[in-house]
Amino acid sequence: MKHFSKIIILVLILGTSATAIGQKDYKFGHINSQELMAVMPERDSAQTVLETFAKKLEDQLDIMQVEYNNKLQTYLADRDNLTELIRQAKEQELNDLQTRIQGFEQSAQQEMQRKQGELMQPIVDKAQKAIQTVAVEQGFLYIFDIAAGGLIYFSDDSIDILPMVKESLNIQ
């Protein structure tokens, strides 16, 4: 019986310590990545470069549009005096120019998206690295991005790490 009570005591001790080991505090945090991106100083300079790039594309499109409008006005003013062959050539020229303008608009839109990605990716990478650094330093198990829209609920026990990440990046 003495031996049996020692086994029960040993089982209780092991069970209690296993339960204590299993009851680890899990830290969950959240951040609004859009809010973080909005306060990063690199974003402003990237936005300025992007606006300058967009202005150049718009200026080129305006030049093409003016050329089209001038040719259209000339054609409309002279079309009654043109032979059929010249009229067809002028109409084809206008159609070709309009097609070029539409192609340029599509290419410009794609180029803007590429340029935006090129300018913003280093900033996104820096933000993600800072979030990861804070998460590791503070012992978080998960960090949820509330800007991504997939998070439906988070408890008051979830910690907003935005102030810590801003501090890590030396942002006020």
Notes on the structure:
The protein is mainly alpha-helical. The protein has a single domain (25-168), classed as Skp domain (Protein Binding, DinI Protein, Chain A), CATH 3.30.910.20. It has helices at 2-22, 33-39, 41-78, 84-138, 162-168, and strands at 27-31, 140-145, 159-160. The chain has a three-stranded parallel beta sheet. The chain is rod-shaped, with a radius of gyration of 32 Å. The model is unreliable at 3-12 and 14-21 (pLDDT under 50).
Topology of this protein?
Layout: H1 2-22, E1 27-31, H2 33-39, H3 41-78, H4 84-138, E2 140-145, E3 159-160, H5 162-168
Parallel strand pairs: 1-2, 1-3
Helix pairs in contact: 3-4, 4-5
Number of extended strands: 3
Q: What's the CATH architecture name? A: 2-Layer Sandwich
Structural class: mainly alpha
CATH class: Alpha Beta
| SS summary, helix count | 5
Morphology call: rod-shaped
- Give the distance, in angstroms, between the N- and C-terminal Cα atoms: 69 Å
User: What portion of residues belong to β-strands?
Assistant: 5-15%
Given as residue ranges, the uncertain stretches (5+ residues, pLDDT < 50) are 3-12, 14-21
Number of domains: 1
Q: Average pLDDT, to the nearest integer?
A: 85
Overall helicity: over 70%
Compute the CA-based radius of gyration: 32 Å
Main beta sheet, described? Answer: 3 strands, parallel
Strand order of the largest sheet: 2-1-3
